[in-house]
Write a structure and sequence with these properties.
By secondary structure, the protein is α/β, with parallel strands linked by helices. The chain is built from seven helices and ten strands. The protein has helices at 4-14, 47-64, 77-89, 130-141, 158-166, 177-186, 195-203; strands at 18-20, 26-27, 33-34, 36-38, 70-74, 93-96, 109-110, 118-126, 145-154, 171-176. The strands form three sheets. The protein has a six-stranded mixed β-sheet, with helices on both faces. A two-stranded antiparallel ribbon has the order 1-4. Helix 3 (77-89) links the parallel strand 5 (70-74) and strand 6. The chain is globular, with a radius of gyration of 18 Å.
Length: 215
């Protein structure tokens, strides 16, 4: 049986969809310093990795959400993954816009969705959980039964886990921050003594004490 946590962690590091730079932190829009940069859109341009991702998402849907009737991608990063995964599974798909269109039928949900239809949301990345919860809320308001989320990667941050739990949203990710850090240290992307610093960041991103001052 494929260990997707390990496989996807290796893949994301290899194509630099996930890039760890603890000594030269990135700055998020919020101003928080981060040792990690994540752009899972890069998986779409790497055919072998893309295959692993879509097969992993299909496996997740089949095993964790066997009652699923339709897949809904998040806009925009989840759309392609939802389409490819739905094709593998022979299922219908659609996607949820960030907001309603300002013309035509002013749809927010694109694709056919019947009341009480059982939906799985396909997402590329979960950090604080806010954006995917908005998607789930929109689907629930439209009458769908949202079984949960299948995502490529999650940070596993306390705030995100708490928000998902409060919104009663189940998420199953192919890989996560802790596995990425483990693989990165083992395969030489980072130093072994960086591991505790990175986990400290994951535990509380607002606490910047993990950052080493350059000498």
């Amino acid at each position: 049986m494929t260990d997707y946590r390990e496989l996807i962690a290796k893949d994301l590091l290899k194509i630099k969809a996930v890039f760890l730079r603890p000594d030269e932190p990135f700055t998020w829009a919020s101003g928080i310093k981060s040792p990690i940069y994540c752009d899972n859109r890069l998986t779409l341009t790497a055919p072998e990795v893309r295959t692993h991702v879509e097969e992993g998402l299909a496996h997740t849907v089949k095993t964790c959400y066997p009652e699923a009737e339709v897949l809904m991608g998040t806009s925009t990063a989840g759309i392609a993954h939802a389409a490819i995964t739905a094709h593998i599974l022979g299922m219908p798909m659609g996607y949820v816009r960030g907001s309603n269109k300002d013309h035509g039928r002013q749809n927010r949900i694109e694709g056919k969705l019947d009341a009480n239809q059982k939906v799985v949301v396909i997402e590329d990345l979960i950090s604080t959980g806010g954006s995917v919860i908005e998607v789930v809320d929109a689907l629930r308001e439209a009458g769908a039964v949202v079984l949960g989320v299948a995502s490529i990667f999650t940070y596993g941050m306390k705030k995100g886990l708490q928000r998902l739990a409060e919104a009663d949203v189940k998420n199953v990710s192919l890989s996560d921050f802790d596995k990425i850090v483990e693989v990165a240290a083992r395969d030489g992307y980072i130093k072994e003594d960086d591991v505790s610093r990175l986990i400290k960041f994951r535990n509380d991103p607002s606490d910047e004490s993990w950052i080493k001052v350059a000498k």
